[in-house]
Design goal:
This protein is mainly alpha-helical. The chain has a single domain, classed as Ferritin (Up-down Bundle). Helices cover 74% and strands 0% of the residues. The protein has seven helices and no strands. Helix 2 packs antiparallel against helix 7 and helix 6 packs antiparallel against helix 7.
């Protein structure tokens, strides 16, 4: 399904985070004690939490903002490509795992920045800003937590 409204974008953002979590978990080794396994579990849990937070924002948002059409912009910058299975396959590699996850987050944050710049009403701008800030803060928190794990 191609996103057409802001509600579609929010729903697909939640799906993207769930998909990231699944790919992170599926790439984990069976030994369960490795640093890679701990990192993957930490990132997967963070992605599941972020999905729930994004979904909650979507449920609490004003209907008027959710029904904002984004089709024209999203046709050129589809969110679906971020959740493309081929793009997420690289998460099964051990090297640069955190960087791969952060790259997906940075692309998502950039999408929300561009949508915010094009938003015409205050409620829509506020909703997009809230989700963008949530994405930025959670990405920062995940990176800091992962870096602490690397220090162990």
């Amino acid at each position: 399904m191609q996103a057409q409204t802001l509600n579609d974008v929010i729903q697909q953002t939640g799906v993207l985070h769930q998909t990231l979590a699944r790919h992170l978990r599926s790439g984990a080794r069976d030994d369960g004690d490795s640093r890679d396994g701990l990192l993957r579990e930490y990132l997967a849990q963070s992605e599941r939490n972020l999905s729930a937070l994004v979904d909650e924002h979507g449920r609490d948002a004003p209907e008027r903002a959710l029904n904002t059409w984004c089709y024209e912009y999203l046709r050129a910058h589809p969110i679906e490509r971020l959740a493309d299975g081929r793009a997420l396959e690289r998460l099964t590699r051990d090297e640069a795992l955190l960087q791969d996850v952060m790259t997906v987050h940075q692309e998502l944050i950039a999408l929300y920045r561009r949508l915010q710049a094009r938003a015409e009403t205050a409620p829509t701008r506020a909703l997009i800003n809230d989700i963008r800030e949530l994405e930025e803060n959670e990405a920062r928190r995940m990176a800091q937590g992962a870096n602490r794990l690397f220090e162990l």
